[in-house]
Amino acid sequence: MTNFMEYTQALAPKTKRIALVAHDHMKDTLTQWCLKHKANLAKQTLCATGTTGQRIKKATGLEVAPLLSGPMGGDQQIGAKIAEQTLDILIFFWDPLASMPHDPDVKALLRIAAVWNIAVACNPTSADYLITSSLVNTSYDYRVPDYSAYAAGRE
């Protein structure tokens, strides 16, 4: 059995699958960001946790697939989508100055995004850079863990 992860290649589709998440103090900021980038976001497939998704949909008219509220399981739903390789980008506006009762959920979500090597933006500036990248509207080949090799090595 090996002690390291092997990797393989994955292909993110031309139309990116984007999760939108925001903590309470950042929901308005994310909604305003979505309004600013509405034209580009309209070309993508969007999902969002609870109230965040409702606010974005109401303010922008964008089609946003609803998930549960973050603390009620929405963060885990997004984590599962990342692990299943059905999400390409995580836009997660969190408030670094607020205490977070569901901090373990936040850490787990950011960890799984790093494990599966998807693009993550945690604030408006990084999200601006990400959504305006030429890679957003093209297919993109990237490295992911080779879970089949990992599972075979554990047997």
Automatic annotation (TrEMBL):
Give me any GO biological process, just one.
methylglyoxal biosynthetic process
Active-site residues, record numbering mapped to chain: 75 (proton donor/acceptor)
Q: Could you cite one Gene Ontology molecular function of this protein?
A: methylglyoxal synthase activity
Q: Which InterPro entries match?
A: Methylgl_synth (IPR004363), Methylglyoxal_synth_AS (IPR018148), MGS-like_dom (IPR011607), MGS-like_dom_sf (IPR036914)
Keyword match Cell membrane: no
Any idea which UniProt keywords this protein has?
Lyase
Any Gene Ontology CC annotation:
cytosol
Q: The organism sits in which domain of life?
A: Bacteria
Residues covered by the MGS-like domain:
9-155
Any idea of its EC number?
4.2.3.3
Top-rank EC class of the record's enzyme: lyase
Sites binding substrate sit at 23, 27, 49-52, 69-70, 102
Q: Tell me if Lyase is a UniProt keyword of this record.
A: yes
User: What is an example of a Pfam family matching this protein?
Assistant: MGS
Reactions this protein catalyses: dihydroxyacetone phosphate = methylglyoxal + phosphate
**CDD domains annotated for this entry?**
MGS (cd01422)
UniProt cross-references to NCBIfam families, sorted A to Z: MGSA, PRK05234.1
Physiological role: Catalyzes the formation of methylglyoxal from dihydroxyacetone phosphate.
Which family is this sequence assigned to?
Belongs to the methylglyoxal synthase family.
Instruction: Report what the protein is called.
Output: Methylglyoxal synthase
Source organism of the structure: Agaribacter marinus
